[in-house]
């Protein structure tokens, strides 16, 4: 829901400090902020988070910014300066969570590592997201999501055999790490209720991707089998593929449940395949995937996309087609479930994705779009007891 009321929210009263930039750390704190946490985003003075200038820009600010940084308060601090580091220490004394995604060792170099901050606030939970984690031989290497996707095994499986691996068109490695990070924060908050102590959460980009790799490793261990890219198919799960229509579009059909498969074969006039005992279960179908996919593709190729989709719906076979942004914002199901919201920004009203997950009693909300750089400096620093004159002095010295 879109409002400014945080009075009945799951994370009401939780204080979060966000340090870092771009995607993984900020995405994690965005999720916390959507459920009522007070998120203070620390940015370098003058330039701010580089995401402010990524992808499409309107009125000088990235449109992505209003998704990634909604509900947050912006505080500018030059963290290389001792006075700025002291402000962080003051904020930490009252914080519940600190989220950071610097290269390992960066915070320690500023005297802001976990052990130092824990001494100030033993209840502090620190979420640390990095390319390779806080330990191990690769810990000091720079790591972006794309590298995590490669090392985690995802890129090798993307695309078609014999062709260059392709990327998912979003920063999936970063976002997966953010989700694992939020899970870690919620687990640590639950444990803190028993122990009264915080802890450090170590999330690596490559590990978050690797955790999604299903049976990749046991298949290699048991059979020496190395899974390879397979285009639009899902090897070992049949039928599940994309199929051409006569209007140049494609439909995606997931007929891999045993009873669903029989209904699908009946629909396309291939009861011979539907009743073949060799194909009654998935392992047998997977041995004859080319035959089954060929039969389905022959049927779809004689029809338009809408006709195919309606027929499959009638037969209760899971099916769909690749949505574009235009399809999404017009889809009645998206709208009914409030997955398209609108926020007010400095550039005017803007459609943005809704909030997940959907809680029945304490739902999340979108209160504001992304803040202007340093928009909340005065309010946040006044909360630490600084006068307007002191804030002005910090600004003049380039501290904020």
TrEMBL record:
InterPro entries: CoA-transferase_III_domain, CoA-Trfase_fam_III, CoA-Trfase_III_dom3_sf, CoA-Trfase_III_dom_1_sf. Transmembrane segments: none annotated. The keyword Transferase applies. Pfam families: CoA_transf_3. The keyword Transferase applies. Keywords: Transferase. This is Crotonobetainyl-CoA:carnitine CoA-transferase CaiB. It comes from Pseudomonas cuatrocienegasensis. The lineage of its organism: Bacteria, Pseudomonadati, Pseudomonadota, Gammaproteobacteria, Pseudomonadales.
């Amino acid at each position: 829901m879109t409002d400014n009321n945080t009075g009945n929210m799951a994370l009401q009263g939780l204080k979060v400090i966000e340090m870092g930039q771009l995607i993984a750390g900020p995405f994690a704190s965005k999720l916390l902020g959507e459920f009522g946490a007070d998120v203070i985003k620390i940015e370098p003075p003058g330039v701010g988070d580089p995401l402010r200038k990524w992808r499409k820009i309107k009125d000088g600010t990235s449109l992505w910014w209003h998704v990634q940084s909604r509900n947050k308060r912006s505080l500018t601090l030059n963290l290389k300066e001792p006075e700025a580091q002291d402000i962080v220490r003051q904020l930490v004394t009252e914080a519940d969570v600190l989220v950071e995604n610097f290269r390992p060792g960066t915070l320690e170099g500023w005297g802001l590592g976990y052990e130092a901050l824990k001494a100030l606030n033993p209840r502090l939970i620190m979420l640390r997201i990095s390319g390779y984690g806080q330990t191990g031989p690769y810990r000091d290497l720079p790591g972006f999501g794309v590298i995590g996707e490669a090392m985690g095994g995802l890129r090798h499986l993307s695309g078609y055999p014999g062709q260059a691996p392709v990327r998912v068109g979003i920063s999936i490695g970063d976002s997966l790490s953010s989700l694992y990070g939020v899970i870690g924060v919620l687990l640590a908050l639950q444990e803190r209720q028993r122990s009264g102590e915080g802890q450090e959460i170590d999330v690596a980009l490559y590990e978050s991707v690797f955790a999604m790799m299903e049976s990749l490793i046991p298949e290699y261990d048991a059979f020496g089998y190395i899974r390879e890219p397979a285009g639009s198919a899902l090897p070992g799960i049949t039928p599940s593929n994309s199929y051409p229509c006569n209007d140049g579009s494609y439909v995606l059909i997931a007929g891999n449940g045993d009873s669903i498969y029989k209904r699908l074969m009946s629909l396309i006039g291939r009861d011979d395949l539907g009743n073949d005992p060799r194909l009654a279960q998935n392992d047998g179908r997977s041995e004859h995937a080319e035959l089954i996919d060929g039969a389905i593709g022959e049927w779809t190729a004689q029809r338009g996309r809408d006709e195919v989709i309606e027929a499959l719906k009638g037969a209760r076979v899971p099916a769909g087609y690749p949505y574009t942004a235009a399809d999404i914002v017009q889809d009645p199901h998206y709208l009914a479930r409030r997955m398209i919201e609108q926020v007010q920004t400095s550039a005017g009203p803007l459609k943005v994705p809704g909030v997940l997950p959907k809680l029945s009693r304490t739902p999340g909300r979108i209160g504001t779009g992304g803040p202007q750089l340093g928009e909340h400096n005065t309010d946040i620093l006044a909360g630490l007891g600084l006068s307007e004159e002191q804030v002005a002095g910090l600004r003049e010295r380039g501290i904020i």
